[in-house]
Design brief:
The complex is a heterodimer of chains A (about 425) and B (about 140).
Chain A (H helix, E strand, L loop, with lengths): L1 H18 L11 E7 L5 E6 L5 E9 L2 E7 L9 E5 L7 E4 L2 E5 L4 E5 L13 E4 L13 E3 L4 E6 L29 E6 L11 E5 L4 E7 L4 E6 L5 H4 L6 H6 L3 E6 L10 E4 L4 E4 L20 E3 L5 E6 L13 E5 L15 E4 L1 E2 L2 E2 L4 E4 L18 E6 L5 E5 L5 E6 L3
Antiparallel strand pairs in A: 1-28, 2-3, 3-4, 4-5, 6-7, 7-8, 8-9, 10-11, 11-12, 12-13, 14-15, 15-16, 16-19, 17-18, 20-21, 21-22, 22-25, 23-24, 26-27, 27-28
Chain B lengths: L2 H18 L5 H14 L1 H4 L17 H4 L2 H10 L5 E3 L2 E3 L11 H14 L9 H11 L1
Antiparallel strand pairs in B: 1-2
Helix pairs in contact in B: 2-6, 5-7, 6-7
Classes of the chains: A mainly beta (about 425), B mainly alpha (about 140).
């Protein structure tokens, strides 16, 4: 009897909870959001084609498939056609010059599209890149395309800060860091050659711990990225970084990446308060000493651990003028700011002109957690992960906690 | 909610709080909690629920409530393999905590075994010492 009543009570609770799956997003004046896809699970990066087709890359297979295309056949603004294909999980997806590109954590594939923007054969992609390092940690491969026939692939470092023993208290940093030969940077490959690997590709940039957001800036023709900064400053060096500083430090960073650039990982991190490249304590740093003079500086630093998972330059002209040329960044939300509350879980806007910031960043879309600040990341109902722009100039935001996609549009004043 | 529901719920809470203190005295619980917050919570989170895709929960897992020697060895040697916890796969590495003393490891493990149910028995320092000898 007891257990029956208890069960009934539990039941009541779960139905109440599952009934409120959608959230109301807070947006600037004149913008509105509409949920266009729901319950796809781990929706990582997304892409939208010129006919409005939405492609989602899944990090957990849905009915055995890792890519979803949603199409609005009768053009009533709602997706009414679903195509599932690709038998691999992953993060990266991109559209360009008649192809769809998608990545697993080891390889990059491309699918030809015909003139009606239909997949020629979703079961037979060309494997253009293979054999990339995937050791679990930072294994996702984000991709973007330039306008010269290259694909840029992030290969995250399978390490926090290249210690002899990863994440172990007191373990020193390796000098030089051997991981940089095959990870911790951006690699560039041709889009039109099959079966390339490290040897055929080029290490385009190094010293980048884990880039998850990247986009080609069409206004200045250059690669820009957002990087996840290191962890464990407070946990391993409490005498230098108290809990508050460890939550705030180091910065998550936004870089312009010229060919051959070095971001300085693991030797330094970006301190957005001092605005300096500070030597990592594993390499003899004390929170003040600077290092890696040859490494480039970011364009902007964000508070620590917010996890910038997607970057999108605004190429449209539907939003007000200030958005043009600027960048949206989707923050997945932090997990290691405790005992402080977690932060992030929003989309921000960075105003830019000619590839340079012309103002501070601001929160653009908020409310994804469904309950304000959260102490634990699992409490966040949704976590922004991917961004794309539609043909009409609206933008799309994906969530890899529940698998939602929102379309954010400007409705005017 | 009827008074019967409330009575049942209260009974349930009383029951569960008495179970959680079984075998774990409050001094150990307190030391264990402090150690947990210092060494584990940044990753596994204060509520023990971990981080989606990255860090497995310590709640509702046999790794925590099951075989003690396996649990002790995870702390002594770290863990770097694909594991499944609550139907999710994880494969980020966890570093070893062998720099903690036998007593500290026993305290923190007793704490997680009592707090992140299903409740399980305490871990004693000599049990940690025995595993340390066996594998190092």
């Amino acid at each position: 009897m007891r257990s029956i009543v208890l069960l009934a009570v539990c039941f009541l609770f779960t139905t109440l909870i599952s009934a409120q799956t959608s959230v109301t997003l807070q947006l600037p004046e004149g913008f509105g959001a509409k949920q266009v896809a729901a319950d796809w699970g781990r929706v990582r990066h997304i892409a939208v084609n010129q006919n409005g087709d939405l492609y989602m890359k899944l990090d957990r297979l849905k009915q055995g498939y890792g890519i979803v295309r949603l199409r609005d056949k009768d053009r009533d603004g709602l997706y009414d056609d679903t195509l599932l294909f690709g038998d691999y999980t992953g993060t990266g997806i991109a559209l360009g010059n008649g192809f769809l590109y998608a990545s697993s954590n080891k390889a990059v594939f491309r699918y030809a599209l015909d003139k009606d923007m239909d997949l020629v054969d979703p079961t037979k992609p060309e494997r253009i890149v293979h054999g990339l390092i995937d050791k679990g940690q930072h294994g996702s491969k984000s991709i973007t395309l330039d306008n010269q026939g290259y694909v840029y692939v992030n290969i995250g470092a399978p390490s926090n800060v290249c210690q002899v023993k990863d994440r172990m208290l007191g373990s020193p940093g390796m000098m030089p860091c051997p991981l940089l030969d095959s990870a911790g940077g951006i690699w560039r490959f041709r889009t039109d050659k099959t079966d390339q690997s490290y040897r055929e590709g080029m290490r385009y940039a190094t010293g980048l711990r884990n880039v998850v957001g990247l986009d080609w800036n069409p206004f200045v023709n250059d690669l820009f990225v957002t990087v996840h900064g290191r962890d464990m400053l407070h946990q391993h060096y409490p005498e230098i970084y108290d809990a508050k500083l460890g939550a705030e430090m180091p910065a998550e960073t936004f870089y312009r990446i010229p060919k051959g650039a070095d971001g300085g990982w693991p030797y330094v991190y970006w301190d957005h308060l001092q605005k300096k490249k500070i030597l990592s304590p594993e390499y003899g740093g004390d929170g003040k000493k600077q290092g890696a003079p040859g490494a480039i500086e970011p364009l902007m630093g964000f508070p620590g651990h917010l996890a910038p998972n997607a970057l999108l330059f605004y190429r449209g002209d539907r939003f007000p003028k200030k958005y043009r040329e600027g960048a949206f960044v989707a923050f997945h939300g932090s997990w290691n700011r405790s005992p402080e509350v977690q932060e992030g879980f929003y989309v921000v806007f960075i105003p830019l002109k000619d590839g340079k910031p012309v103002g501070d960043w601001e929160v653009f879309a908020d409310g994804f957690t469904g309950k304000g600040k959260v102490a634990n990341p699992r409490d966040a109902m949704h976590r922004p992960c991917g961004l794309a722009m539609g043909p009409d100039g609206s933008i799309y935001v994906s969530d890899d906690a529940k698998g939602m996609v929102w379309k954010i549009d400007y409705k005017g004043k | 909610m009827t008074s019967l529901h409330i009575a049942v719920l209260t009974g349930f809470f009383l029951l569960s709080s008495s179970v959680s203190s079984q075998g774990l005295n409050s001094a150990t619980a307190k030391r264990g909690r402090i150690l947990y917050e210092k060494h584990c919570a940044s990753c596994h989170q204060l509520d023990g629920n971990g981080v989606p895709r990255l860090i497995p929960p310590l709640t509702g897992t046999d790794f925590v409530s099951g075989d003690k020697s396996r649990l002790i060895r995870i702390l002594l040697e770290g863990l770097n393999e694909r594991i499944v916890v609550q139907e999710e796969e994880y494969y980020s590495p966890m570093a070893s905590f062998k720099h903690l003393t036998d007593q500290q490891i026993a305290d923190v493990l007793s704490y997680i075994r009592a707090s992140f149910g299903p409740k399980a028995s305490v871990v004693k320092a000599p049990e940690v010492g025995a595993q340390r000898k066996k594998f190092q």
